[in-house]
Amino acid sequence: MVKKILMIVFLQAAIGYLVVPEIMASDIDGQGLYAKHCVLCHGEDGTGKTDLGSGLGARDFNDKKFQAGITDEQIVEQIANGTEDKMFPFSDKLSSEEIHALVPVIRAFGK
Ligand code: HEC
């Protein structure tokens, strides 16, 4: 009985050791970041049809042509550096990991 418990404790520790770093790496909530920082202009649906987004000329993330015409690196760059007078840069607000976590959120609109 004791042996069994020890075995379970050992296994849990081993599994925890293997699994935890992976969970931490993907622990960033890209959707949550989008909702917090991007919805104001790009909209919950990613169309950019918000007062600010329409006025400033944000493109529709759902558009297949938009998705095909932009690389992941360009998405990262746009979020980090923004566009003068249109979209402010996020490099001082979000970490590099957080910015990268937003790429699949943008891509998901095109699927
Ligand atoms: C103040 C409004 C505003 C906010 C907030 C904003 N954006 Fe933008 N974004 C824009 C505008 C306007 C453009 C178009 C810029 C251009 O034409 O160069 C744009 C462009 C983009 C593009 C490239 C597609 C395009 O239309 O050129 C991506 C990707 C993007 N934004 C992602 C994000 C993400 C992710 C966030 C949140 C972290 C965010 N934006 C926050 C206004 C905003």
3D structure, described in words:
This protein has 111 residues and is mainly α. The protein has a single domain, classed as Cytochrome Bc1 Complex, Chain D, domain 2. The chain has seven helices and no strands. It has helices at residues 2-25, 30-37, 39-42, 51-56, 64-68, 72-81, 96-109. Heme C binds at residues 37-38, 40-42, 52, 56-59, 75, 78-79, 83, 86-87, 90, 102, 106.
Give me some keywords for this one.
single chain; Cytochrome Bc1 Complex, Chain D, domain 2; 7 helices; 64% helix; Cyt_c-like_dom_sf; mainly alpha; binds heme C; 111 residues; 0% strand
Please describe the topology of this protein.
Elements: H1 2-25, H2 30-37, H3 39-42, H4 51-56, H5 64-68, H6 72-81, H7 96-109
The protein binds heme C.
Protein name: Putative cytochrome
InterPro entries: Cyt_c-like_dom, Cyt_c-like_dom_sf
Keywords: Heme, Iron, Metal-binding
Q: Which second-level CATH architecture applies?
A: Orthogonal Bundle
Question: What class, by secondary structure content?
Answer: mainly alpha
End-to-end separation in angstroms reads: 52 Å
Assign the CATH topology.
Answer: Cytochrome Bc1 Complex, Chain D, domain 2
CATH class: Mainly Alpha
Domain Cytochrome c: 25-110
Organism: Candidatus Scalindua brodae
Protein name: Putative cytochrome
InterPro entries: Cyt_c-like_dom, Cyt_c-like_dom_sf
